Amino acid sequence: MTRTKDIERIVTAAHALTRIAAVRTGSEVPAAQWRMLSALNGEGALRVGALAQFARTPQPVVTRLVGQLVDEGLVTRAGDPEDSRATVVDLTADGREALDRWRTDLVAAIEPLFTDLADDEWETLRRASQILADRTAVSLAVAR
């Protein structure tokens, strides 16, 4: 198998895991909400435009969703001190807790797929997950 095919399999499997977890949890919360909260958790406060890019969601949709998340106490919204036309969104403690609960639910939903793995397979997944986490952290930082 080529490296290109390996990367394709990683991306496809990651998407499949996400879809399986979403279905198994029964969550009706839009995926964009979790992408936004995850971006804020990893990157810190972001302008609405940057948040839209990270969430892969149109800016008007993000603006509306930010309003809902503010109402729920999951994020705060404030003017950008560097640009009065821009709005900065930040994660609250309640938002971080909601994100942690969602991630716990996702793990519980897909964990049964992995219960029969041998120790060497777990070690392979552990190493692969670390490599993926390292590479995607660099990619997000470069994207800014």
Automatic annotation (TrEMBL):
Domain (HTH marR-type) ranges: 1-134
Cross-referenced Pfam families, in alphabetical order?
MarR_2 (PF12802)
Gene3D superfamilies xrefs:
Winged helix-like DNA-binding domain superfamily/Winged helix DNA-binding domain
Entry-linked SUPFAM superfamilies:
Winged helix' DNA-binding domain (SSF46785)
| Recorded GO MF terms | DNA-binding transcription factor activity
Q: Which protein are we looking at?
A: MarR family protein
Please tell me the species this chain comes from. Answer: Microbacterium ginsengisoli
